[in-house]
Design brief:
394 residues, alpha+beta, 11 helices, 28% helix
């Protein structure tokens, strides 16, 4: 990771404009006048520099309690690597369909590979996108037995790298693996900052995540559609189910986040040389809702050019046991919501957001299995893998 110099870089903010919700949206935007929310642009440099770290943590805390989203700049990931990764993803999706099908996600039990247009549903709507998914490059567990072993142990394994695809795209494998390595480093820094912003020890999440954090890289192509065409939404409204998402998107736009107060949809506009950072439901639950998991969606792409998006989902190791709730800290008790308030499930029910993903254990449960939670998420998204490799229907 490149060395980041310590300097007093000024905080920047970028407004996100309000739009009227499209017809297919599950929620209706309010017309009441209000201050337009802003997503802050934070500098990782300010976190790594002791002199500016307190300001960074304060700004992060504000962003995560109000919106659950911010931009991160000066992140240390090489601009050349970012450019090469986006280019190689475009090149992959430009391959003939027969070549892309050699990486179909159902080829292995590890939930890695290619997904055809319209084959994934979010919030009961077909997503209008092609997808390609990767994870940590590991050896599969030789002891795994469907129906006997814990299902989530089947997630461990290698990615798919067809020889003919690597012949066509020689930089494909090394570029994707290097990008995931760099995003793991960045995500580790961000989770350390999240811990400090909650008045926890800096290594709280590092210890919770373990030596082998589990992550997923999803590369998505949203093809442009004609104005007025009755295509499904690019990706339906949902919250990410895990801990941390770091998103790289091109300059086409179309991603929207929902203001948790008003329900208004807001454009999350691309800003050059930044990633978009959002938290998932696991953090929202862990903090009793003090930190927001942003409801977001992708509109139909009518720009005339294809849109590419590469989210990186960063979670604890598959064998990690997650506490049902953080203990209140001395200095930041105000951060934690009283346990008598409505549960996360009640809040999601009230928003009418149903993505059909993994349920959480009841509040009186001391811990829950991160591996089981991740497996529940991916198998509901990709039932064809589940029915083929795990011996029963989804």
């Amino acid at each position: 990771m490149p060395t980041l110099l310590c300097k007093d870089a000024a905080l920047t903010t970028e407004p996100i404009s309000t739009q009227t919700a499209v017809a297919c949206a599950p929620l209706t935007c309010t017309t009441a006048e209000r201050m337009i929310p802003k997503a802050a642009t934070l500098s990782l440099q300010d976190y790594l520099c002791p002199a500016t770290r307190p300001r960074f943590l304060n700004d992060m805390r504000t962003s995560l309690t109000e919106l659950g989203t911010f931009y991160i700049k000066d992140h240390g990931v090489s601009p050349a690597l970012i450019q090469n990764t986006m280019a190689i993803v475009r090149d992959y999706f430009s391959l003939p369909l027969n070549e892309k099908k050699k990486m179909l996600i159902g080829n292995t039990r590890h939930f890695r590979g290619y997904k055809l247009m319209g084959e994934e549903f979010t919030n009961n709507q077909a997503d209008h996108r092609e997808q390609l998914q990767f994870g940590p490059e590991d050896e599969p567990l030789a002891s795994f037995q469907p129906g006997t072993s814990a299902d989530h142990t089947g997630l461990q394994g290698p990615n798919q790298w067809p020889v003919s695809t690597l012949d066509a795209l020689p930089r494909f494998r090394p570029c994707i693996l290097e990008y995931m390595d760099q995003l793991e480093i960045l995500s580790t820094h961000l989770m350390e900052a999240v811990a400090l912003s909650l008045d926890l020890d800096a290594d709280y999440f590092r210890n919770l995540f373990g030596l082998n954090p589990y992550y997923r890289l999803k590369c998505a192509k949203y093809p442009s559609v004609a104005q007025g065409k009755s295509a499904t939404i690019g990706c339906g409204a949902h919250k990410d189910t895990g801990f941390l998402t770091v998103l790289l998107q091109d300059m086409v736009g179309g991603l929207q986040g929902q203001d948790p107060v008003s329900g208004e949809w807001m454009d999350t506009r691309p800003i050059p040389d930044t990633f978009i950072v959002t938290l998932g439901e696991s953090i929202e639950r862990l903090t009793d809702g003090a930190y927001q998991a942003t409801v977001h969606r992708v509109l139909n792409n009518t720009s005339g050019q294809d849109r590419y998006s590469i989210p990186f989902f960063f979670d604890p190791a598959l064998d990690a046991q997650i506490p049902s709730r953080l203990k209140e800290s001395g200095k930041n008790k105000v951060m934690m919501i009283d346990s008598e308030n409505a549960s996360l499930e009640d809040l999601v029910e009230g928003l009418n957001i149903h993505d059909g993903l993994a349920p959480y254990p009841k509040k009186d449960t001391q811990t829950w299995s991160n591996g089981e939670h991740i497996f529940e998420t991916v198998h509901r998204c990709h039932p064809e893998v589940y029915s083929r490799w795990y011996g029963r229907e989804a």
